[in-house]
Design goal:
98 residues; globular; alpha+beta; 6-stranded antiparallel sheet
Amino acid sequence: MSSISVLAVEPGKRPSLISIDNDIAIFENIVNGPVDLLPFYRSPFKIVCHLNDSFELSTKKPENTFFIVKHTDVFLGIDRTEAEELREVLRTKLKKWK
């Protein structure tokens, strides 16, 4: 199984770049249940979050851990430069989320 680097966001913690197995079961374990894939910032970045959190992402912070990854036809990892760019975008977004 291959690993990918993702930007993980846990409730109450700073976003961190972590390496995870590129496996949907691992994704579900991280977000505590069934996953949803939502566009984020610009293509090809996507938020992988709990299905129940996806309905409120436009107005409030997710209650569960989520992560950001690149996705085209497959999931791809992000590098450190991309992670820094995404952290800046998240800082702004997290301030808007209640």
